[in-house]
Amino acid sequence: MRAEEICTHYSEDPSRFAGAVTPPIFQSSLFTECEGNEGDREGRYAYTRVSNPTTEIVENKVAALEQGEAAKCFSSGMGAISAAMMHYLKKDSHVVAVASIYGPAHRFLAEYMKRFGVEVTFVKGTDTEEIEGAIRENTDLIYLESPSTYLFLVQDLSKIAEIAKRHHAATVIDNTYCTPIFQKPLTFGIDMVVHSASKYLGGHSDIIGGVVIGRKEEIDQIAQSERELFGAVMSPFDSWLMLRGIRTLPVRMKQHMVNAMEMAAYFQELPVVKEVIYPWWETHPQYELAKKQMTGASGLMSVVFDLPGEQIKRIVRELEFFHRGPSWGGFESLISPVGADLEQDNETMKKGLVRLHIGLEGADLLKEDFERAVKNVLG
Ligand SMILES: *Cc1c(COP(=O)(O)O)cnc(C)c1O
């Protein structure tokens, strides 16, 4: 099934809801037994922490988009990530994780899970031999995020899935950057996919949400233990907003990429720019690998400026349409001069690096904005 069909019609049945093309928000905490809502756990609604008809429609769509058997929504990306990790980890487990993963996911593994004796080895992720070398007897999980979101380092998904199977370790990937429109990790043998729906899946910067996708048996276990017991379930209203966002996911992602490619070409020619870091750009050191496992890239990129930090920050403050702030994945362009004050490059950051989210304003407007800001600061 094509993504467009999944996003518009799949798992929808207007005849259930008086012909409404948009399903209702089932804003109900509990569901009583009645004709049509009977039986055991499967197929019966009882309580929204366990299942909800609005949320279920989104879950079916995301599972189909990722070519997974099942999906469950959470109240945040971190709710989904911590549930997926807890599913695979036990006391004294060992984890191999990519060093450049989302900050709180890094902290969850490196700091919080310490209290259960969980140990983690962080790897760069670009070298599969380094990953295999880090695996121990008690390695239960290999945790990936490809591409990562500052340096856009890419991991070889099919090779890592093969290594993990050989060593009886599970693989989980954060696929928030690509969305299933540009990358389907399960088709490369990865066991489980997690997303922050607060980014592109929601797409309008109005929800905090997460989702876990994988084999039905494992997703059911997560629903009955990590989600039901920790309780980080998505609200019906957020599910409805996420559903609304997903309707336009394919067109939005296409346009983010078109705009990002235009901006990359613009930055490439800008004399004060030292490097454009975008996985779909020819100069990216892993461009070939990216092409092998992705079908495009989103609106997030980094640009390394060859300017003193003070001047970088002045240019950033001069911009009108790039708002300063974290996060990404919505309609709006954002900028974050995360590497401006750095003295020198390190493993996860470069000196002079500015991260940009290229929104849906149109590349011409965004180029003019930069042109003006650079001129105002540098003359
Ligand atoms: C934002 C983000 C998360 C966390 O999602 P929340 O919804 O904020 O909890 C996880 N991974 C990546 C790559 C993110 O950008």
From TrEMBL:
<dbReference type="Pfam" id="PF01053">
    <property type="entry name" value="Cys_Met_Meta_PP"/>
</dbReference>
<dbReference type="InterPro" id="IPR015421">
    <property type="entry name" value="PyrdxlP-dep_Trfase_major"/>
</dbReference>
<dbReference type="GO" id="GO:0018826">
    <property type="term" value="F:methionine gamma-lyase activity"/>
</dbReference>
<keyword id="KW-0663">Pyridoxal phosphate</keyword>
<dbReference type="InterPro" id="IPR015422">
    <property type="entry name" value="PyrdxlP-dep_Trfase_small"/>
</dbReference>
<dbReference type="GO" id="GO:0030170">
    <property type="term" value="F:pyridoxal phosphate binding"/>
</dbReference>
<comment type="similarity">
    <text>Belongs to the trans-sulfuration enzymes family.</text>
</comment>
<protein>
    <recommendedName>
        <fullName>homocysteine desulfhydrase</fullName>
        <ecNumber>4.4.1.2</ecNumber>
    </recommendedName>
</protein>
<dbReference type="GO" id="GO:0047982">
    <property type="term" value="F:homocysteine desulfhydrase activity"/>
</dbReference>
<keyword id="KW-0456">Lyase</keyword>
<dbReference type="InterPro" id="IPR000277">
    <property type="entry name" value="Cys/Met-Metab_PyrdxlP-dep_enz"/>
</dbReference>
<feature type="modified residue" description="N6-(pyridoxal phosphate)lysine">
    <location>
        <position position="199"/>
    </location>
</feature>
<dbReference type="GO" id="GO:0005737">
    <property type="term" value="C:cytoplasm"/>
</dbReference>
<dbReference type="GO" id="GO:0019346">
    <property type="term" value="P:transsulfuration"/>
</dbReference>
<dbReference type="InterPro" id="IPR015424">
    <property type="entry name" value="PyrdxlP-dep_Trfase"/>
</dbReference>
